[in-house]
Model the fold of this input.
Amino acid sequence: MEHSLVLFHNDQQIFFSDEHWLYPLFEVEQFLKEQSISANELLLKDKIAGKAAASLIVRLGIRHCYIELLSERAIPVFEKYGVKYSYQKLVDHIQCRTEDLITDKMTMEETYLFLRKRAGKVQGVSLKINSFSVDIAGKQILDNLELDLGRGEQLVVQGENGSGKTTLIRSILGLIPSINGSITIGEEVVGSTGWQKNRVQTGYLNQETIKNNFPITAAEVVAIGLSSQKIPETERAYRVELAMRKTGSFHLKSKLFHQLSGGEKQRVSLARCLCQNARLLLLDEPTSYLDEKGREELGELLIDLSKNEAPTMLLVSHDSGWTDQLKWHSKTLKGGKLW
Amino acid sequence: MVDLFTYPPILKGFIVLILTGFAFPITGVYLLRMNLLPLRFMLMHGAILGGALSLAMSVNPFGGTLVVNLLLVLLISWMSRSLKADPGQLSAFFMVVSISIAFIFIYRFQVPAKDTLSLMWGSLYTLNEIEFVGTLVFSLLLILFQARYRHQLQAVFFDSDVAQTSGVNEKGFYYGIILITAVTVAAAMKLIGALLLDALLLLPALIASYHAKSYKGMILWSSFWGGLFATVGFLLSLALDLPASSTIAVFASIVFLILILTKEK
Done:
């Protein structure tokens, strides 16, 4: 086979890729999104496939494939989802760390999201905190804190009131200076010139505490996410609408922000972060002042977001009943450190 | 009444008042939104200090008030941010300090107190060429500033933290707004006086805040009300042979009262 991956429709080659690893399959995903071809009519020929590739092939909806070098671990996946496969050579396993990391407990959606994260096909950006300490009025709030969050990962930080959760968020935002240590978002160290230029990549959803009655509409609040960008007004309006539709808040666009309910305000604020194209989302006690319905709706929105755009998200909350429903990894902030 | 416009001071006063009437309420929105009301009082006292210093040194009082006000706002902004001191308390402190130093100068240099205090009621018809052109240019720049940076200003007014995380230079805009406020207060004092400047600055913004349905609406309505008060107030003052500044203030207050009383609960 000349190319690493080839796609046929009615015996006609319609797509090929010379990329490696799982990237050709992500290219196929993009190609199929742009075409109106039913995936189950396609034949996919790939040079090598293990469990990870098999999962992606299933996810793409492809029902026929030919693999030159096939891992035995891929076969149960194909058989479970009715994919007809053939191969040139069958091996026990292929040398691929990704294949080892996919467990049987993972659902197809979880596997897909995991692979997207591995491939960097998510909105999220990495967050790394090294030996970070903050001292406020002589009291050490964060003490050599360490954190490593990969692209598109989510983390809940719990802790009692006064444990430093908000300080942690504000430090990542670059609003509080440290006494030692560093925070790196993607490639940029917080406080550096590069970080200043890319500051919009961090979105901030604060506690719903803006209680003034300044006349500003929900759409104007969402547009704040674009306030530092020089873009035409038509594009601005389009991006605001898109973000508001994603969070189900478009019908609120002309309403005054201060007249919205707590839940509606958080939807609008989340739309602001999406509009900003935030790759790291910091949420500070987002359920404060929300009623049961608002909490439930916000939870659904965040779960949706974690599966689709998948920005890296760090959420601090003492509302453990609500955060448990998100099923995200969690850590506790205690004594200035994460445990 | 039309004949009166053949007099250059009246025509000049009318032109400058109309343009500032539309432009200055924009600063009123900034003042309200940034909670800078105590700063405004301090600037009124700072203007008296500037006036006293200028008269003692025999220089133009308008320039003196402008310089003193700019220095005071920069000092207060720097102190409030770097020392984390309350801007309201700092304003009160500098208010007392300014007026004390002003009276020391008035006493020591035998400045006629009535000349200094004439700043309290303004002098619309005594604008010299530099003041006339300067005020017009500043008004136009203020409108351009608002139009050019409306998105960033909207973010700063909404929430300073959110503005920063949206990539807006919040600190820069804060200082910019403070400086604009200082210049506006100094210019408005010259036009209609310290005691009545709120008719041009705050009342239009306050009225707009009662019925505007968006930030954009707030700015446009403030500007509309300011322009209306200036135009109608000025024409009424000519028709009724009353002081322009007081007529504008009374007219603005009547409109304010009517809107408050008829506002839907």
Observations:
- Residues 25 and 199 of chain B are 9 Å apart (CA to CA).
- Chain B has twelve helices and no strands.
- Chain B touches chain A through 24 residues (CB under 8 Å).
- Residues 8-33 of chain B form the longest helix (26 residues).
